[in-house]
Design brief:
The protein has 107 residues and is α+β, with helices and mostly antiparallel strands. It has 2 helices and 6 strands, in the order H-E-E-E-E-E-E-H. It has helices at 2-11, 95-106; strands at residues 16-23, 34-36, 42-51, 58-65, 74-79, 82-89. Strands 1-4-3-2-5-6 form a 6-stranded antiparallel barrel. The longest helix is centred in the C-terminal third of the chain and has 12 residues, at 95-106.
């Protein structure tokens, strides 16, 4: 399995990809929660999530079907039978914050 399987997956687009997301509504994503697109179709699963201590936003990571990744559209995480709105986000989550802080320190 090893190297050939990994090379094949890279060339033919992987079946899923680990992506970051932030929730725009109140809720905390937890491992195992399902991720849905705006049409209500299940597109992935949360692997980890919490509230960011630096930004105070709910953030998480999850595996999403490779062909369903669209950073411009909303996602929904099903938390206690309620779909909470969110959006896909590039990682690391606090890059902009770190960049601003480093600029302030240099002055």
């Amino acid at each position: 399995i090893g190297k050939n399987a990994i090379d094949s997956d890279r060339k033919n687009n992987p079946s899923k990809k680990l992506v970051g997301f932030t929730l725009t509504e109140k809720g905390i994503p937890r491992s195992g929660y399902k991720i849905f697109n705006s049409n209500g179709n299940e597109i992935g699963t949360v692997t980890s999530g919490s509230v960011s201590p630096s930004t105070a936003k709910a953030i998480g990571l999850g595996f999403i079907k490779y062909n369903k990744i669209d950073y411009k559209k909303s996602i929904f995480v099903k938390i206690r039978n309620k779909k909470i709105k969110g959006k896909l986000s590039k990682t690391p989550f606090i890059w902009k914050l770190l960049k601003c802080v480093s600029l302030l320190i240099t002055f």
